[in-house]
Design goal:
Number of helices: 14
Helix content: 40-55%
Strand content: 15-25%
CATH topology of the largest domain: Rossmann fold
Number of domains: 2
Largest sheet: 6 strands, mixed
CATH class of the largest domain: Alpha Beta
Radius of gyration: 20 Å
Distance between the termini: 36 Å
Oligomer: single chain
Strand order of the largest sheet: 2-1-10-9-11-12
Number of strands: 12
Order of helices and strands: HEEHEHEHEHEHHEEHHEHEHEHHEH
């Protein structure tokens, strides 16, 4: 029996609400206790995630009103790499909006193009991103910005629940999230992921092994320690899908990295040492850097799986992985 509906037709807002009702104190995600990784990670429960989703939905409705049925106005979001990304996405769905996740690396022209193509007129951002986002807003006169509250306020008790009543048949073509292309062949273009497409990943658990190998979701999430250290950026498909699919459909705890420090090989080693993951996904350039560190190799060898994405791995790392049994 699956919480939130029939496997393959479960909508993530319903999965979160149902799981929070049945197992409110179970760990869903975890975040660093401080900006010192040696202080460890603290749990974020299913009840807190559900509460934060309702916080976002209420915020969007209060500040922007109820959208007309079937319209899904676009609300852009940029912030620290923490649970607010996947939570904002689901909160937008509950409120009848669609979230656009934008890269901080985009040029002003690229951001404006994304806002224009998605008809986005509001940008929610982390307070410390204020100076970064201001030029983007200046380039689009209809745009307004809202600084979001710290994560602790999102998970605080006392938020009014927002009901999500759509069936799978009603919502399968509704947007789940709007991402964008890299812009390597021109300006970045928006890419809409639909709820039905996201829900199909739930069915991977029934795909039979081929040559002894299962699809990545059931294989990696059923390993002896399925806990995942999230290194990939959350505005990227790898980051937002790993965090959403693994946590919400496969009940895998997602350990978020410390967003106050950049993604470097040395920092990844510290996060691996102190967050107790069983697997992770790391950009190729970072893995290449880690391949020159004996300490990093030792930490990588402890994992069940080391995945990568966003480019090809250097041949020397592949040789090292083979020789050192990574």
């Amino acid at each position: 029996m699956f919480l939130g509906g029939e496997c393959g037709k479960r909508l993530i807002p319903n999965v979160i609400d149902e799981t929070a009702r049945k197992t409110p104190d179970l760990e869903c995600m975890s975040i660093p206790r401080t900006n010192n990784p040696y202080d460890g990670w603290k749990p974020v429960t299913w009840a807190q995630v559900a509460n934060a989703v309702n916080y976002v939905a209420n915020m969007l409705i209060t500040q922007n009103g109820y959208p007309a049925p079937g319209e899904f106005p676009t609300v852009a979001y940029i912030g620290l790499e923490d649970p607010r990304y996947p939570i904002f996405v689901v909160g937008a769905i509950k409120a009848g909006y669609q979230a656009l996740l934008i890269s901080p690396r985009n040029s002003i022209e690229a951001q404006r193009n994304l806002f224009d193509k998605t008809d986005s007129n509001i940008l929610y951002h982390e307070l410390q991103f204020a100076s970064m986002v201001q030029p983007w807003v200046d380039a689009r006169p209809t745009m307004r910005i809202v600084a979001v509250a710290p994560f602790d306020e999102w998970v605080a008790d006392g938020v009014t629940p927002v009901l999500y009543t759509k069936t799978f048949a009603e919502a399968e073509w509704d947007p789940y999230v709007v991402l964008h292309t890299s812009g390597s062949t021109g300006l970045p273009k928006p890419v809409v992921l639909r709820q039905g497409m996201v829900a199909q990943h739930d069915l991977h658990r029934y795909v039979q092994a081929r040559n002894g190998t299962l699809p990545w979701l059931p294989a990696w999430n059923s390993s002896p320690n399925p806990r995942h250290l999230l290194v990939m950026p959350l505005f990227h498909a790898a980051g937002i899908l790993i965090s959403s699919l693994c946590a919400f459909y496969y009940n895998t705890t997602i350990a978020f990295r410390d967003p106050s420090h950049p993604i470097t090989g040395d920092n990844v080693v510290k996060w691996l040492k102190n967050s107790n993951p069983g697997w992770t996904a790391i950009p190729p350039a970072i893995l290449d850097h880690m391949s020159h560190s004996e300490e990093a190799i030792t930490e990588l060898k402890k994992l069940h799986v080391v995945a990568f994405g966003g480019g090809r791995l250097p041949p020397q790392f592949l040789l090292l992985a083979f020789l050192r049994d990574i």
